[in-house]
Amino acid sequence: MILELAEIRIKPGQQAAFDEAITRALTTVMSQAKGMRGYKVNKGIESPERYVLQIFWDTIENHNVDFREGPLFAQWRAIIGPFFASPPFVEHFDLVVKSDGASA
Amino acid sequence: MILELAEIRIKPGQQAAFDEAITRALTTVMSQAKGMRGYKVNKGIESPERYVLQIFWDTIENHNVDFREGPLFAQWRAIIGPFFASPPFVEHFDLVVKSDGASA
Fold it and tell me: Are B30 and B75 in contact (CB under 8 A)?
């Protein structure tokens, strides 16, 4: 399993609407993606427009090819894209170590 | 519960040694910290010197005051600090949404 971590900056003052939109995008669109094994969204305390989206995938190709080049990507971006202040910064990660109970 | 997310850049070519060092620092030092409820370390695929450390705390004060101003901080930094290419960038986050099984 690999981790996608996306840094998202939204426009000021839209936190409540974005919280609703990304929750809806995850539960209605991302949940259909091949190889998608889980997700988490956190919002910044010091930086209220900063969000970190983490998605767990079976393989990097499930994200980069199956999802990004497939029909779900446009639906996903239609819901959350209007909130972005700048393009998200996205990279992938392997697990080094975690405590009991933490996700990969 | 709040999330601490630290962006770490290490010096090139030291991944294996850093993997061992941060695992040891978490299990021998961080595990003693008041209010520390779990942790995870991921390493970059596209950016091999990039690490993301996530620590779950009961409160932000457990991190900022109890840990950073307490005796464990020097022990923690003595183990992992020598690997840093630049000072880590650290912020705190609240949970927006997660799938079943993902950590806060």
Answer: no
Q: Looking at the complex, does the CB of residue A19 fall below 8 Å from at least one CB of chain B?
A: yes
- Beta-carbon separation of A91 and B46 below 8 A: yes
CA distances from B74 to A18, B8, B27, B40, B79 (A): 39, 17, 15, 20, 9
Q: Distance between CA atoms of A63 and A81, rounded to whole angstroms? A: 17
**In 3D, which of A16, A92, A7 has the Cα closest to residue A51?**
A7
For A83-101, write each residue's pLDDT tens digit.
999 999 999 999 999 998 7
Measured between beta carbons, which residues in chain A are less than 8 angstroms from residue B30? Answer: none
This complex has an ipTM of 0.94
How is domain A2-93 classified at the CATH fold level?
Answer: Alpha-Beta Plaits (3.30.70)
Q: Looking at the complex, does the CB of residue A46 fall below 8 Å from at least one CB of chain B?
A: yes
